[in-house]
Amino acid sequence: MSYFYRLKLMKEAVLIKLPFTSLPLLLQTLSRKSRDMETKNYSSSTSGFVLLGLSSNPQLQKPLFAIFLIMYLVTVVGNVLIILAVYSDPRLHTPMYFFLSNLSFMDICFTTVIVPKMLVNFLSKTKVISYVGCLVQMYVFMAFGNTDSYLLASMAIDRLVAICNPLHYDVVMNPRHCLLMLLGSCSISHLHSLFRVLLMSRLSFCASHVIKHFFCDTQPVLKLSCSDTSSSQMVVMTETLAVIVTPFLCIIFSYLRIIITVLRIPSIAGKWKAFSTCGSHLTAVSLFYGSIIYVYFRPLSMYSVVKDRVATVMYTVVTPMLNPFIYSLRNKDMKRGLKKLRDRIYW
């Protein structure tokens, strides 16, 4: 019985309710908040937010539209190919590729939350997003983004067990444990997102409703609030440290253990072989966490519109686009799986 077939049987026995249990509560709260705003007689211009986008230069809108459309299509096609290759090749039915296929799915969802709306805004004059739509976008974006970070941590644990404890690999990384790690990643991420958005929904917006960003991110929206955001910032920073730093520390600990173990291998060839299995994952982690740390782990007073836009594009668009290339170009198993998938399509 294959690894993925056993996982499928286990998934059928587990009712996964994560997005569906938290979204109704979120939508109910946001609808109530939206009605409260309307009763306060805000003008029509303040019934939603205006997304400024990457550039306000009219001459750049169409070139930017073309660039990001191509990047989005490459992201979707590349990650779909990774998913199909993993599920169609029995030799890729292992924990590492199970997590990789789920990471590809999350990357597709992650970019789909942001890029299509951004593409519409490139060709639109209004660039408006409703209050509820803004907070829903924020919720879904954070849920999939956080799940990405936990999946990267799960992949680091997989490499740790494979290199440091290979004799017990099949026992430790069995289908049940992998499924629990996936469910745990989704649960923590959705609860974190729900908490953050409910916190944001308590803020008041009295003056400018122009978000100097291309989507509803936490820091740009906080800058617009006329409420006292000091307590919100403190809670957000503390909770973000707990939720986002945990998988990052897990990755750091895993690779420290891996380095110590690999250095004990006597032959250079053995050391290179062990390290080569981690290269793709380390590259993806560096791209993802490098930009996230730059954007989110700074006080609101140090927020820079231009620099943060560039850094945010890196982890919301560029990294999901590059992940299929990172995990396939130097990976013989993935190349074989993609070739097998190509042969199936053409035959």
TrEMBL record:
Pfam family, one: 7tm_4
InterPro entries: GPCR_Rhodpsn, GPCR_Rhodpsn_7TM, Olfact_rcpt
Keywords (A to Z) from UniProt: G-protein coupled receptor, Membrane, Olfaction, Receptor, Sensory transduction, Transducer, Transmembrane, Transmembrane helix
Gene giving rise to this polypeptide: LOC111535317
Cell compartment(s), UniProt: Membrane
Positions of the G-protein coupled receptors family 1 profile domain: 78-327
Topological relation to the membrane, as annotated: Multi-pass membrane protein
Stretches that traverse the bilayer: 64-85, 97-116, 128-144, 241-263, 275-297, 309-329
Single GO term (MF): olfactory receptor activity
SUPFAM superfamilies (alphabetical): Family A G protein-coupled receptor-like
GO cellular component, one term: membrane
Name assigned to this protein: Olfactory receptor 1L6
